[in-house]
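<goal> How does this chain fold?
<body> The protein record starts here
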Amino acid sequence: MNRPLIAAALLAGSVLLPSVALADDPRLVERVYDPNKVVRIEGKPNVQAAIRFAEDEHIENVAIGDSNAWQVTPNKRANLLFVKPLSERAVTNMTVVTDRHTYLFDLVASPGSRNPIYVLAFKYPEDEAAVQQADAEAVVPQAPNAVEAAAVSDPYAVVDPAELNFAWQSSGDTSLLPAQVYDDGEATFLTWAPGTTLPAILVKDYEGTEGPVNFAVRGDVIVVDGVPREIVLRAGDDMAKLANRGPARPPKQAQPGIARANGQPATEVK
C-alpha cells in the first residue's frame, strides 16, 4: 500500500472514533453530539457516572425503559444527569429531552469493566452560519420559538388553585425534604431551596420495589408525572418519605410522551 493510501486510512479511522478520552483518563469521555446516534454508557454497580450537557442547556424530560434497573438523578441546574446501575446485569435504554436536543442512550452494566465511565461530556461543533444568522436577526422582533409556543398549551403552565392538594406529610431526614410539595391530581410538584443537592426521587411498584420516576423540569420545580401515594427520597444511606394524605382522586389522562410514574403500568406512546 502506498503512503497516500495509508494516510487516508489513518485519517478515516480517526474520524470514526466514537469518543475521546479527556486528560488521558479513559473514565472521562467526550463525545460529539449526533441526534442520529445512540450513545452507549457502560456502568458498574456502586460507581456513579455523570452525563454533562451544555452549560446553557436544561433537561426537560427523562424516560427510562426499566426504571428498576438504573438510578437516574438530575442536578439542580438540570444540565447534569447522574446514572448508576442497580444490579450487575442491568440493561435498559434512556431518552433525555432538553430545551435544545434529544439524546438516546443504551445503559449497560459491565461489572468486569476496568474503566467505567465517570463523566461523559458532549461537545457541539460551532455552526458559524447559524451564529451569523442569529446576530443578523437579533434586531428583528422574533415570533415565539417552538419551546415558547409549546408553553402556551403546557398543562402545567396554568393550574386551577382549587385543584391543588397540599396534604402531603413528610418524614425522615429533613435535609432531603423539599421546601414545598403539592399535586393537582395529575402531577406532583416538588421545589427545593436554591443550591440544594437533589436526592434520588423514587416510587414503589405493586411489589414494593423502589424505582426512579419520570419527570419534567419547569424552572425551579420538579414535576413528577402522576400522583403516587408515597414518594421516597434517597441520598446515600439517608432517606425521607413524602406521603400523600389527600383524598384519592380519579386519574386524569396521561400527557403525551410521558409514561406514568405512580406505580401504574406505563402506557406506550406512539
About this structure: The CA atoms of residues 29 and 43 lie 13 Å apart. The chain has a mean pLDDT of 79. The longest helix spans residues 3-16. The chain has two domains: 18-125, 159-244.
